[in-house]
Amino acid sequence: MLASSRNIVIDNDLQQEEAVNVGTSLSANILVGERELSLTFDYYRTIFEQQVIRDTDSDPHMIHFTNLDGNSYSNALQAELLYELFEGFTFNAAYRINDVKQTINGQLREAPLQSSYKGMLSMSYATRLDKWQFDLTG
Length: 138
Fold this sequence. Notes:
By secondary structure, the chain is mainly beta. The protein contains no helices and ten strands. It has one domain.
């Protein structure tokens, strides 16, 4: 934002953010062959009672920090699995769905610059006695 050469305007009466966050996490270990498969499911909801937003669209020469006038919430659902394929070699995969909404121009819409879907795959190998570890993540 500083490199954009825009004027930065911060409201004088900017209020501190407030939110309520609730959620749950469920996990299970399932024996697959001789090893355990670890499964985890998470769900979290954040309801913003007061939120600071950055308006970069109203004026091309200004970045305006102000309190949101309206509603805003975030729902996040994630599933993850972890399994050791053979001694020292671990496979990890996770997928997350984000539903982030914010009042924009009087309408509850998808919040800008928030990805709705994220995925991660990771493989890790550790040598005996953990002298070396090799990781590949994407």
